[in-house]
Amino acid sequence: MKDGIISTDQIVLITTAIIVGTLARVLTIKEDYRQYPSYPNGYLIHVITGFVAAALGAVAIPALMTKNFVAVTFLTLAIQQFRDVRKTERDSLKDLENTEAAYRGDAYIDGIAKTFEARNYFALIVSFSTGLTIQLINSNLPWINVVGGVLAGFIVFYVLKRFSKGKTVGDIADIKEGRVEIRGSELFVDDIYVSNQLGTENARKLFQNEGIAIVIYPREEHFRITLDNYGQRQAMLFEATRSIGVKRYHFTRKDYEAGRVVITLVPIVRDINKLIETVKETPLLESAKKSHTVMKTYLAGRE
Amino acid sequence: MGRESTQKPNYEILAFITTNKERALGGKPLMLLAKDAEDAKSLTVDIAKAMKADVVQMKSGDYLVLRV
Fold it and tell me: What InterPro entries does the annotation carry (chain B) (predicted)?
């Protein structure tokens, strides 16, 4: 083999690692129930950035093996690239805010952008682990190296996916259908005051005949902290309006006494089960989530 | 409302329609004095339709046209 030309073993290592890493990114794009991004160009953009991330992870091992330690600093380039992915995603979603029926809200956008950044790390780590495993096995039979690498890659992918999977509203709260009631120009759901913006006959009639509502009951008292968060409620309202559409009006309101949260709207598709399911599946935002256990206070002080 | 009131959505009052001239004092939004309740209702609906706005009927019977 001529000096300076990459060996067949290294080609196998790099190719396998890139494929497995890119696959990890492709699988995480399709996993999301909201199917975001649901447009072909969005898929392409994220698959390509995933491919670049996987390529960076794949060439790290050959670079180390050839004692090219300085070359590993290109991983810093990867970090910069992933941050740009987050920034691009955030800017893009913020630009779309005025085109949606309800705002996503800054907290939700931040969460989505972070997820996109994190999923590029998936591709990098998975491809790096695949490459490392192939190098460690180093068998004379190339297919054993490839199978071992792929297996290790998928195990790492599974662990990462489990680790990064957040909780949803359905994990901390029960959601039931609410009773819509109009008193004068005021709207009530299960006797919780929601709005007084139904000032005209048309508005009252529309809401009375077509309005639907859900009431979210926190399972524990401390879950109220998360559910009361303005960003979290905005995210639930956004998902609700996105899934069943909005003909007119959408409101969210919290009840201070029992901690119930109301979401009500006049939808295009009048499907209460779909609405309940959507809100149940809304992710708990990282910025709104609080760890109850670390907030325990000790009256006598810690030991 | 607390902090929520400082966040989106921002409400803008477009018009205030009343039948009581004692309450028609002026201010930033358009202020209209209607002849009677029917006239007030009709004025409100017309303005709300034109401006694609929402309507609040206050306990006093006056109307507020506002946009989110």
Answer: YpzH
Each residue of B23-48: pLDDT tens digit?
A: 877 778 889 999 999 999 999 999 99
Which of B7, B8, B63 minimises the CB distance to A199?
Answer: B63
Q: Which of A103, A105, A199 sits opposite B55 (nearest CB)?
A: A199
Size of interface A-B (CB pairs under 8 A): 34
Total tally of structural domains belonging to chain B: 1
Complex prediction ipTM:
0.73
Q: A116 and A40, same structural domain?
A: yes
User: Does A236 fall in a domain?
Assistant: yes
Enclosing H/E stretch for A173: strand A173-178
The SS3 of residue A10 is helix
Beta bridge partners of A261: A216, A254
Which of B55, B64, B67, B68 has the highest number of chain A CBs within 10 A, making it the mutation to test binding with A? B55
> A221-257 burial by CB neighbour count: b if 16+ within 10 A, else e?
eebbbbbbbbbbbbbbbbbbbbbbebbbbbbbbbbee
Mean pLDDT over A29-54 rounds to 75
Cα gap A127→B54, rounded to integer Å: 54
Let me know whether A126 and A225 are in one domain: no
Give the number of other Cβ atoms within 10 Å of residue A113's Cβ: 20
Q: How far apart are CA A233 and CA A291, in angstroms?
A: 19
- Cross-chain Cβ contact A197/B56 below 8 Å: yes
Find the CATH number of the domain harbouring A249: 3.30.70
